Amino acid sequence: MHCPFCRHPDSRVVDSRTAEDGSSIRRRRQCPQCNRRFTTMEATSLAVIKRSGVSEEFSRQKIVTGVRKACQGRPVNDDDLAKLAQRVEEKIRGLGVAEIDADEVGLAILEPLRALDQIAYLRFASVYQGFDTLEDFESAIASLRRDAEAAGSGPAS
Ligand SMILES: [Zn+2]
Predict the structure, then answer these.
(1) How far is the C-alpha of 45 from the C-alpha of 47, rounded, in Å?
(2) Exposure winner among 40, 50, 130, 155, fewest CB in 10 A?
């Protein structure tokens, strides 16, 4: 693997760590030419099957791009999006499957997005869950309200 800093064609592994769930290995590498360190990640290939039947490699960037649209004008920054995409990837890889439907990826996004921003969540859910009536929005909003009330009531003790 070449060095991302100086493009030296070789690097030395200085540390190797398996993720807790066993789904990936992170390697800390050092470049023998510029001595800088970088991390590589080895994970099993994860294919996303689109509705059209076409499969493509899972990409965190695609999650970010998809969610960013729903977050337009909302107080959500790139850091929040990167963290959300990481949570989604961890959740999906935790399933231990080699391929997953695009719809399931969409569903895996809903929960962390709901915690991040409720308006972005409603926009995203309306597309992924195919809201087509006002009642769909009303029941989603009612569910968000119940959450807010449950959170606002404080610890039961
Ligand atoms: Zn280098």
Answers:
(1) 7
(2) 155
